[in-house]
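Incident log, structure service

09:12 report received: a user says their structure output differs between two submissions of the same chain.
09:20 pulled the input from the user's history:
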Amino acid sequence: MSSPEPSPTEDETILFEGRPALLPNALSYLWTALTLGLFALYRYYVTSGLHYKVTTRRIVVETGVLSKKLEQVDLYRIADYAVERPFGQRLVGTGNILFETLDKSDSHLSLREIQTDVVALYEAVRKATEIDRKARGVRLFEG
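09:34 re-ran on a clean worker, output below:
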């Protein structure tokens, strides 16, 4: 008798959970000062409609303020990763992680302007992806 497939929450650890940074780069601080805080209000509205959750099994992106859209990609479906840290973002400690996935509906997924050590998160996701692939018996072939 085979055991049931584990649910997505079993053995799942949260690696990152949060929203994009309110002021993600040095230029946004300048715009906030020049507009007497109005730019920060605009950014608050934009960032309140985005929520990221990265676990050891999946990446979940929730968008929308009034109407919500939930997009999920299992880690074993990630084909490639990239880290972007433009100079203005490096000054304030934010960065971007870009994923190329095998998902037919959306082959590109990005976590933009997150305020965390993006290189450490990239490494943790990369390691979790390999572990998830081995656990599921999945191999990627480049063609």
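09:41 both user submissions now match this output. Likely a transient worker issue. Closing.
09:42 reviewer note: The mean pLDDT is 90. The chain has one domain: 14-136.
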